[in-house]
Structure formats: structure tokens, C-alpha cells
Write a structure and sequence with these properties.
Function: Has an important function as a repair enzyme for proteins that have been inactivated by oxidation. Catalyzes the reversible oxidation-reduction of methionine sulfoxide in proteins to methionine.
Largest sheet: 6 strands, mixed
Number of domains: 1
Catalytic activity: L-methionyl-[protein] + [thioredoxin]-disulfide + H2O = L-methionyl-(S)-S-oxide-[protein] + [thioredoxin]-dithiol; [thioredoxin]-disulfide + L-methionine + H2O = L-methionine (S)-S-oxide + [thioredoxin]-dithiol
EC number: 1.8.4.11
Distance between the termini: 23 Å
GO molecular function: L-methionine:thioredoxin-disulfide S-oxidoreductase activity; peptide-methionine (S)-S-oxide reductase activity
Low-confidence stretches: 22-27
Helix content: 25-40%
Keywords: Oxidoreductase, Signal
Mean pLDDT: 90
Radius of gyration: 16 Å
Number of strands: 8
């Protein structure tokens, strides 16, 4: 029920925002969004399902260490979050719709964790690439809080995109290549199935 309400609210808010900012410059053919929402294996698998998303890259951002490794980020001392860089066609899927998927894909009220994954590397964050992305993210966070969609306040970090470090090769497309692995079967698959039901009208053909 909460997800249905969230989706309905986003549809309404998106229409309002689009009307308010219809004078904005047209977006380029391809654009990029960068989100952190817990373990990047799971979030990557979710966003790869969406029509209009051409590429999802797992990596690290938001910290102070150059060229971080998975092991280093896992210590929680680099300042980096596990994140995904999403390349998408705004004529097929809008940034508003990606934000909707972001807020459904994880619990944005959990501070520095997602479920049993604990640490600042698993924090909820939106790394904006433009003033327009920042404005939209702020708009939706404020509206979702005002509508009390979640039982607690959203703690999603909002920060400018600086340097994105691509994660090691074995992290890319992790779920699709390791579906029988324990974490994939018992953590990612249930979340992915729920995500697919909510966004059934926005999935790529065959998903």
C-alpha cells in the first residue's frame, strides 16, 4: 500500500513539477544520474530493468580517497558510498521517474545502512550532475516528507557529483552473473521481484 501511495504521489508531483519548469532547456539525448542506495549489486540490478536505461555502472563516490578499492570502501573510512552511475535516454525515461525508482528501490529513512548492510558506504545519497537535478531531488524529498509517505524523515544525502570511480570488473552486472550466490538469492531476488511488480509498465521488453 505504501508503494502504491508513493507511486501515485510521484505521478502527481511529476506533473506539477513539469508544468512549473516547462521553460527549462531541453535535456541532451543521453543523460546521467548517480545514486547510492545500499549495496550496489542490488541497485544496479533494479535500474537495469528500466526501459530507457542503457547502462548502469557500479562504483564509488562521495569520499576523499583517490582510486578506492572495494576492500578500502568496506572499512567505512574512505568517505565513499557504493553507488551506481545510470546512463539513460530522457526522452524514454525522465529523471523524475528515476527518482521515483530510487525512493522505491531502498529505504531512504535508514541512516548509513540498508538492512543488514551497515556503514557510511551503504548510505542513501543522490549525487546531482546539474542544478536542475539538485532542484528536482530537493523538491521530491521535501514533498515526500510533507506527505508523510515514510514513518520517519528521509535522510538521503544530496551532494554534487564530483569524481566517480568505477568498481572492480567482478562487481559489474553482478546479480545477472551470480544469481545462485546466497546474497543474490535471498536478498537481491526478493527486492528485484518487488521492484518489477511496482514498475511493470516501465520495464524493458522481456523483463
Amino acid at each position: 500500500m505504501k508503494n502504491l501511495i508513493l507511486t501515485t504521489v510521484f505521478t502527481c508531483l511529476s506533473l506539477v513539477f513539469t508544468m512549473q519548469y516547462a521553460h527549462s532547456a531541453e535535456m541532451a539525448k543521453k543523460d546521467t544520474a548517480t545514486f547510492a542506495a545500499g549495496c550496489f549489486w542490488c541497485v544496479e540490478a533494479q535500474f537495469l530493468q528500466l526501459e530507457g536505461v542503457s547502462k548502469v555502472i557500479s562504483g564509488y563516490t562521495g569520499g576523499h580517497m583517490a582510486n578506492p578499492t572495494y576492500k578500502a570502501v568496506g572499512t567505512g573510512k574512505t568517505g565513499h558510498a557504493e553507488a551506481i552511475s545510470i546512463v539513460y535516454d530522457p526522452e524514454v525515461i525522465t529523471y523524475d521517474e528515476l527518482l521515483e525508482a530510487f525512493f522505491v528501490a531502498h529505504d531512504p529513512t535508514q541512516l548509513n545502512r540498508q538492512g543488514n548492510d551497515v556503514g557510511t558506504q551503504y548510505r542513501s545519497a543522490i549525487f546531482y550532475h546539474s542544478a536542475a537535478q539538485k532542484e528536482k531531488a530537493e523538491y521530491y524529498i521535501n514533498k515526500l516528507d510533507k506527505e508523510n509517505i515514510y514513518p520517519k524523515k528521509i535522510v538521503t544525502e544530496l551532494a554534487p557529483m564530483k569524481k566517480f570511480y568505477v568498481a572492480e570488473d567482478y562487481h559489474q552486472n553482478y546479480y545477472n552473473l551470480n544469481k545462485e550466490q546466497g546474497y543474490c538469492r535471498y536478498v537481491i531476488t526478493p527486492k528485484l521481484e518487488k521492484f518489477q511488480k511496482i514498475f511493470k509498465d516501465k520495464l524493458k521488453e522481456g523483463k
